[in-house]
Amino acid sequence: MSTALDTTATPSPRPSAVSARQLAASTATRRARAARLKLWIGTVCTLLVVVPIALAQLLPLPGPNDQDLGKRRLAPFTEGHLFGTDQLGRDVLSRILHGGQVSLTIGVLAVVVSGVIGIVAGAAAGYFGGWVDSVVSRLLEAQMSLPLLMMLLLVVALFDPSVPVITSVIAVAQWPEVARLTRSLVLVEREKPYVAAARMLGLHRIQILVRHILPNIIRQATLVVLLLLAQAVLLESALSYLGAGPQRPFATWGRIISDGQDYITTSWWLVTLPGLVIVLLVVGVNLIGDGLRDRSRVRRTATEGN
Amino acid sequence: MTRFTPPILGRRTLLSVGAGLGAGLALSQLTACAGPTGAAGPGTISLGLNRSLVSLDNKLNQFEAAVTVQRAVRQALTSIDQNLRPQLVLADRFELDEASGSWTVRLRDDVHYSDDTPVTVEDVATALRYYGEVNGSFIVGLFPEMPTVEPVDDRTFRLHTQRPVAVLDYLMANIHITPAAANEPVELSSGVGSGPYVVTRANGGTGEYELARNDRYWGPAPSLRNVRVRFVPEESSRVVGLRSGEIDVIDSISPDSADQLDGMRGVRIQRSPGTRINQLFFNFRKPRGHPLADPAVREALTYAIDGRALIDNVLTGSAQQAEGVVPVALEGAARTGAFTYDPRQARQRLDALGVRDLAVKIIWETGEFAADTFIMEAVQEMLSDVGVRSTLQQFEPGGDILQWRQGRRGDWDVLGNGFGNPTGLALTSLQGMYAGTPEREETRDTYQGFVYPEVAGLISDATAEADRDARNLLLTDVQQRIWDLWPCLWAFVPDAVLAHRTRMTDPALKPINSYDLASVALEG
User: Fold this and answer.
1) What is the per-residue pLDDT across B339-365, written as a single tens digit (0 to 9) for each?
2) Is-contact B280 B413, C-beta < 8 A?
3) Structural domain contains residue B266
4) Are B421 and B466 in contact (CB under 8 A)?
5) Does ipTM exceed 0.85?
6) Which residue in B has a C-alpha nearest to residue A63's C-alpha?
7) Is A162 in the B-facing interface, judged by CB distances under 8 Å?
8) Successive 10-residue mean pLDDT values, chain A, 306 residues
9) Smallest Cβ distance to B260: which of A87, A259, A265?
10) B57 and B96 share a domain?
11) Residue-number span of the structural domain to which B51 is assigned
């Protein structure tokens, strides 16, 4: 007996009892949507800060150190000064943008250096184990037990506070977080069959680590590095605020706020506007990091489900 | 049908009530935190100092506000009054014997310390000896030489110096007297004094002190029962503390902060012409052949600085450009010249002198004077306008600027520095800044390497001159000579500014930027 398939019947829109509405309200979809939203908002906030900073030299703004003592502390939107002027009649917007170049340069360089140190040290500790793991783990535990800001201030006090010194100090301060995460990721990866297969094929240990394990963990590790960018910018601002930033006349965000705090009741924009810019950047970068992390989790869950 | 009736006092209700109560309790605590905290109680005032009062002794540590507190505990033979004249305190006689050049001093018969022991001649001799024994004392630098004590009787003694010091009655206002047995050649944080207050708690590390009224004070009893002294380095914090009532008096505030506080309910501002001079002082340790070793180059650079703009805008009129090498309000000061702003002339003069591509390094310590960083940044821009490159190096308090000043850590060209004057005499400032000798330079104890033996000789001659008119003539001559050497890129004399809560009476602010704590009372 043959059964003829009734092709004329109206096909069901979904081969499941789960309706599209229910699917849209599901946790997984909500997470994916939230991750997308975070990415969008984060990107917009970050670009709002980063693009003007990158184009600061091209914008029709006065120089960050151009003074006009007769135009001190002008309020925003006065005489062509969008963010007003500071105590020496300098354009606040120009100082924030040029200061952002210093702060962002230090932040980016610091996270790149700390990322490289952290990934190399963490991967070596996780893969080789033994004394390498002991040395790296004890080092990062020792460093994480020290109060971060105090350590930074001490090192900057010992050496002159210049851009290379501050960058190195922040980079060295941040490597433990990357190293710890990389180590744990490598510990999981090294027990997987593909690593055993590579070993059976006679590949050198470093070759296995570099060519097979690292590509599998680099994405998650770089996410942490991205999140550290916000922390690096905040650290640099804190150091400048405390007087341990690059020497004047470098306009850094922390110093602009520090210089303006005496005027908070009379010239609010000197502290508030640079503060808002820092908040915008830090929130933006953190949202991008969160969004990317959430998206990778959703994808991983989906892959594992299949 | 059975109906479920929730219990009257279910777990959910209990949790809600508990959470509400907890939130209420926490909120009441938070509300208490939000109000002014640590406000001084009745009969007590709180002082917020801009620099840490390391000790209640001035052997090493003397800045203007510190004098107010130190004098409340320890007193000197004399003090400097509102008109910058010496007044007798522990002594009732202080006379110069013009023939011998020595001074005869007699202690008051009723003066005694807070433990009821009398002030003795031995105490004075010990104090003078120990001031001379500490290294790096600001006070010793004001004396051409430290006098020695020759007792005459149990209350009277003579002060001898190798060369007569005609202004010893002014200078002795800075030597605080302590019982000889309790004195040491180091700074004293607590201990017994003859002043209207006694120390009840002292912490030199944090700069916090508590003083209580000395019930056995030999003079008129002070009105306030207690005085609290705190170190609040951040000016914005001091201003906020004063506004909230947590602090009653703040001093040495910047013009912008004074503007913020001016007219505010419950706060009064007091101003007085100052005796302190703030300078951008050239480094006089430059080798021969260096452009800055040439007075003509130094003079040319002064034309680059728009002092009027700095005074009017950055200092908002709360200071005057220096018209001499010391503040003109001082006894014996002379107007020797003025700083002129003419950038074109600056460049022309530098070109004529063959100085091109000059780069200078400016150093200073944060808080050395009000609006210091803004002045330095403005000066940097002004120098750049005449083609002189400059770098700024700012030191935080507690850093090693002293070693830099002495040329032991690195080279510099211009130093931002303030020089206070605790006596009201031009001679004191001249002695402290310009009487450097080659011998003192060997230990780097001169003022930024300023060593001109003829200038030091003239200052020494003026110090020994008992006749006031003759002394002032000598001083005018030496001040002109110093001015012609162009020691400063720019200099200004700030007003002494103090802000206080109106719950206390106006402290009689002296030009030396201190006041008599015993004369302060609470209103009402």
Assistant:
1) 999 999 999 999 999 998 899 999 999
2) no
3) no
4) no
5) no
6) B381
7) no
8) 49 70 81 90 95 93 90 91 93 94 90 93 93 92 86 82 86 90 94 92 91 90 87 90 81 90 86 94 91 74 56
9) A265
10) yes
11) 42-248+503-523
- pTM reported for the whole predicted model: 0.77
Compute chain B's Rg from CA coordinates. 27
User: What confidence score (pLDDT) does residue B111 get?
Assistant: 94
Query: Rounded to a whole number, what is the distance in Å from the CA of A36 to chain B's nearest CA?
Result: 36
Closest alpha carbon within chain B to A70: B313
Q: Does residue B241 lie in a domain region?
A: yes
Residue B383 maps to a domain: yes
Q: Which two tokens stand for residue B84?
A: 């910058």
- Name the CA radius of gyration of chain A, rounded: 26
In CATH, what number is assigned to the domain containing residue B50?
3.40.190.10
Q: What is the DSSP string of B75-140?
A: --SEEE-TTS-EEESSEEEEEE-TTT--EEEEE-TT-B-TTSPBP-HHHHHHHHHHHHHSTT-HHH
A262 close to B (CB below 8 A): yes
- Distance of alpha carbon A270 from alpha carbon A261, whole angstroms: 7
Chain A residues close to B257, C-beta within 8 Å: 262
Letter for the amino acid at A222?
Answer: T
Q: Which residues of B touch A (CB under 8 A)?
A: 234-236, 239, 254, 256-257, 259-260, 306, 309-310, 312-314, 366, 371, 373-374, 376-378, 380-381, 391-394, 396, 399
Task: Give B452-518 as a DSSP string.
Answer: -HHHHHHHHHHHH--SHHHHHHHHHHHHHHHHTT--EEEEEEEPEEEEEETTBPPP---TTS---GG
Contact present, B195 and B72 (Cβ < 8 Å): yes
CB contact under 8 A, A249 and B380: yes
Nearest to B462 by CA among B212, B165, B185: B165
B447 and B513 co-located in one domain: no
A19 close to B (CB below 8 A): no
CATH fold label, A95-305: MetI-like fold (1.10.3720)
In this structure, the answer to whether residues B383 and B348 fall within a common structural domain is: yes
Q: Check the CA dihedral B14-B15-B20-B24 and report its sign.
A: positive
Interior CA angle at A280 toward A276 and A282, to 5°?
A: 115
Residue B19 lies in a domain: no
CB pairs under 8 A between A and B: 62
Name the minimum distance, in Å, from the CA of B111 to any CA of chain A.
45
**Cβ separation A67–B235 shorter than 8 A:** no
- Same domain? For B344 and B205 the reply is no
**HSE of B189, CA atoms in CB hemisphere, 13 A:** 14
Residues B463 and B515 grouped into a single domain: no
pLDDT attached to residue B2: 46
Considering the domain architecture, whether residues B374 and B305 belong to the same structural domain is answered as: yes
- Strands of B156-160's sheet in order across: B91-96, B103-107, B156-160, B148-151
Predicted pLDDT of residue B35: 42
- Check whether B462 has a pLDDT greater than 90: yes
A58 Cα to chain B: minimum distance (Å): 22
Q: Which residues of B touch A247 (CB under 8 A)?
A: 391-394
B71-92 per-position pLDDT tens digit: 899 999 999 988 889 999 999 9
Are both B334 and B463 inside the same structural domain? yes
User: Are residue B383 and residue B419 in the same domain, yes or no?
Assistant: yes
Q: Which residues contact B519 (CB under 8 A, 6 or more apart)?
A: B222, B507, B508
Contacts A262 to B, Cβ<8 Å: 235-236, 239, 254, 256-257
What's the N-to-C CA distance of chain B in angstroms?
Answer: 78
Element (H, E) at B252: none
Contacts of A243 in chain B (CB under 8 A): 366, 394, 396
- To the nearest whole percent, how much of chain B has pLDDT over 70? 92
Omega cis (within 30) before B327 = no
Q: How many domains does chain B have?
A: 2
Please list, in sequence order, all residues whose beta carbon lies within 8 angstroms of the beta carbon of residue B384, skipping any fewer than 6 positions away. Answer: B390
Helix ranges (DSSP H) in A129-162 = 130-144, 148-158
